[in-house]
Amino acid sequence: MKKLSILALSAVLVAVSCKESKTDSVTTATEQAVAEHTGETFTVNTDSTTVKWTAYHKGGLNPRFGTTKTAGTFSVENGNLVSGSLTSDLNTLTTDPAAVDPAMSDGKTSADLDAHLKSADFFDTAKYPSVKFDITKVEDLAAGTESKVAGANKTVSGNLTIKDKTVNVSFPAKVEVTENGLTMVSIFTINRQDWGLAYGTEGDPKDWMISQEVDLELNVVAGK
């Protein structure tokens, strides 16, 4: 039995080390001053915008994924994105049914996971109903910077607030601005522990089995 346990642990560690990244990494910092709103205002089209999330068990196994609804505005000056704010309503958080097989999860469904994520065990939406992202800076993507997003041309930095904690994150993005519209595409990974998101108390085995990595994919569409 002991030998079997060691083999099982080794398999998990190998899976962790071999998980292929399909997202960009973020650079984190303390909360920064929010960029001033200047120029023209573009309003996010909530129906056309998608914010997808993916969470994993250890080693990238058994992923759970879904979406949230997002609203917000951007400021554009001289054809460039200069500032903006996005708010995701966590009460709209929905797990894709394809991510949860009741036969493999003791009969639990995607709806059960939705309820659990909204509970005090995780997001506590009764107290913290939304996640907010306020842009602090937008820069041209540095030459030679690799990104998982085809055509990435900017580095977007902003204060990401989850529950009662704010962390500044910077990530590559493809930002396109036209006379009447704006799109922003990005896919990056955050560490949930940076925002104190844990299941149970510190060191709880239930929390250990969940990867600290959470992937976020933004496809934001805005217009005048």
From TrEMBL:
- What domain of life does the native source organism fall in? Bacteria
Q: Where is the signal peptide?
A: none
Q: Which SUPFAM superfamilies match?
A: YceI-like (SSF101874)
Pinpoint the Lipid/polyisoprenoid-binding YceI-like domain residues.
41-223
Which Pfam families does the record match to this protein? YceI
Enumerate the PANTHER family for this protein: PROTEIN YCEI (PTHR34406)
Q: What is this protein called?
A: YceI family protein
Source species of the chain: Kaistella yananensis
